[in-house]
Inverse folding.
């Protein structure tokens, strides 16, 4: 079997984690993120070269289950991530410390990680009141290689963004090209990550994508980009709105 590109894996799992970190996803967004995670799991399941770096897949699934309120299942996935990595790490410690097991939850073992297995797990009756403020996943993963275990620099800048679409083009029945303009309205530079969500009036035809700038955007600076979005059921021509949220 052809080996899955390590760089491609890191890019795709990083984008998944960015989407989970940008803001609390809606149930629709969460399902879309999970579908993308499933595809990545299938693509790299036979690649032994990924080694312990495979733990990031379990981190992503743990966060998805956390947002669903499945705290016991979320704990299992995060503990499995720790085992695959070969030891604990700062984010896992903070994540696990904020989980409250719910006895009524049905615990599903995290291996193997599959959509069928996740659907068979019970939904917890408890809901965490406090969303974990320290889950700034992308920043944390950037420090994994350097051995950093501190999140002291998280939130050290004051950035905010305004975003708007400037037009769309239907490229083919399934693909919609979106043109957008982003402005840094904060008082310091930052690297925006933008979630685009397209839909028609009935939400029959939808699409979600994430675009992340590759370099910092200065305070007051503007960024124009375009993105090709895949629309479900080949309904690009029926899309009536595209919403953009940048963090």
């Amino acid at each position: 079997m052809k080996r899955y590109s390590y760089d491609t894996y890191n890019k795709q799992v990083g984008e998944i984690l960015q989407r989970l970190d940008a803001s609390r996803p809606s149930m629709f967004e969460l399902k879309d993120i999970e579908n993308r995670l499933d595809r990545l799991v299938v693509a790299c399941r036979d690649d032994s070269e990924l080694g312990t770096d495979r733990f990031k897949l379990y981190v992503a699934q743990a966060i998805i289950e956390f947002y669903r309120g499945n705290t016991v299942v979320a704990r299992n996935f995060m503990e499995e991530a720790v085992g695959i990595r070969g030891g604990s790490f700062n984010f896992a410690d903070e994540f696990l410390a904020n989980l409250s097991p719910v006895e009524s939850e049905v615990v599903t073992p995290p291996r193997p990680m599959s959509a069928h297995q996740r659907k068979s797990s019970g939904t917890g009756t408890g809901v965490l009141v406090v969303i974990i403020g320290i889950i700034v996943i992308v920043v944390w993963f950037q420090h994994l290689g350097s051995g950093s275990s501190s999140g002291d620099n998280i939130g050290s800048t004051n950035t905010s963004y305004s975003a708007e679409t400037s037009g769309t083009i239907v490229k083919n029945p399934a693909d919609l090209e979106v043109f957008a303009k982003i402005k840094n309205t904060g008082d310091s530079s930052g690297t925006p990550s933008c979630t685009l969500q397209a839909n028609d009036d009935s939400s029959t035809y939808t699409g979600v994508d994430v675009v992340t700038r590759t370099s910092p955007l200065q305070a007051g600076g503007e960024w124009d980009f375009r993105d090709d979005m895949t629309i479900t059921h080949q309904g690009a021509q029926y899309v009536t709105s595209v919403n953009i949220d940048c963090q």
The radius of gyration is 19 Å. The first helix runs from residue 6 to 22. The first strand starts at residue 161 and ends at 172.
